[in-house]
Structures are given as C-alpha cells and as structure tokens.
Amino acid sequence: MKVIMKKKVFDIFIWTVTVFFVLGIFFLPNEVPLHWNINWEIDRYGSRYELLIIVLMPIIIYYGMLLTKKIDPKLKSIKKREKTYELIRKLISFFCVLLVTFFYFLIIYPIHNATFIICLLLGGLLIFIGNYMPKFPQNYFLGIRTPWTLANETVWIQTHRIGGYLYMLGGIVIILGGLFSPVVGSRVLIVSILIVILLTTFYSYIEYKRLTK
Asked: Hey, which residues does 47 pair with through a beta bridge?
C-alpha cells in the first residue's frame, strides 16, 4: 500500500495544481495578455478562457508521455531504464507547472523584462536533461531521435553521451545570456538550442557512418 501511495504522489500533485490552475482562470479579468514580443511588450490580448490549453499543459505532458511509452515500438528498451524515463517524465511535467505558474505571475504582476527568468527555466531544464541523457533508453519519443540513433543502439548511446554535455553547456550559456537585454537573451536562447540540435544530429550521422563502414 505504501509503495502504491509513493508512486501516486506525483499524480496527486499534478492533478491538484491543474485544478488550481483551472479554477484560477475564473479569478482573472475577462481579457488578459497572451503574448509578449522580443522586447517584453504585450502585443496580444485575448479571452481568459484561451488560457485553458496552457494550464492543462502539465497534465497533458504527464499522461501523454505515459501513453507514448506504452505505444513505443521500443518498449522493451524503455523497460530496461524505466526509472530514468519516469524521472524525465516527471521533470518535464514539473517544468510545465513552473511555466504555467510564471505565466500567471506575468498576467497578475506585469514586469518589463522576464528574459532572465525564461532563460533560467529553460537553461535549468537543459542542464537537468543533459545530466540524465546518457541514461536515456532508445525510443521514438524522447531524446535525440534521428534516423541514425534509432537504427543503431550504439549510435544512440554515443550520441546521448555527447548530447548530455552539449545540453548542459547549452543550458549554462542560455542562463548567462539571460543576464543581458531581452533581445540578446532571446537570441542566445534560440541560437544555443539550434546549435545543440545541429551538432547532435550531425554527430549521430557521422557516428553511424563510422560504425557501419
């Protein structure tokens, strides 16, 4: 019974915060800010009910990743490292909770520059994911999923080892970029993510070619 309760703690948490998020919508003005430009100026307002898709994001991600795990063609691989998969599933869901909380904060207490907070959240997520990336099981929905990593388990392992370092480095660079102006911080964030994606993709291709000669 205690084991079952421990496994259900995060489920209870995710449902509780989602209910609070949904109820919170009814305490907001009928029209709320929904989008900010690169200079952190509000450039779109809309109905508070448009927030529903945002506030439901944590629970959609949480149970969506449970579904993708069950339908993944490489389920056997996931089961070998299921603890890691479940940890990342909870981590990403919790990150979504933080994002929704921050979104509510922006609506209730508008601030002129939230670049650092965004960069801190995204950079922190990349660092945490990068730390666990070498343990990612081969699968079709999580990790560096290129044709070459999915075709060869050794390429998957090697790419995720390198990718782990790149993700953590990218996360640090993004956090540091957030210390500057909104424009600089936003550009550093976008460029860093693009570089990490391109490098890991290119590495997986090179490693696959090397191993299949």
From this structure: 31
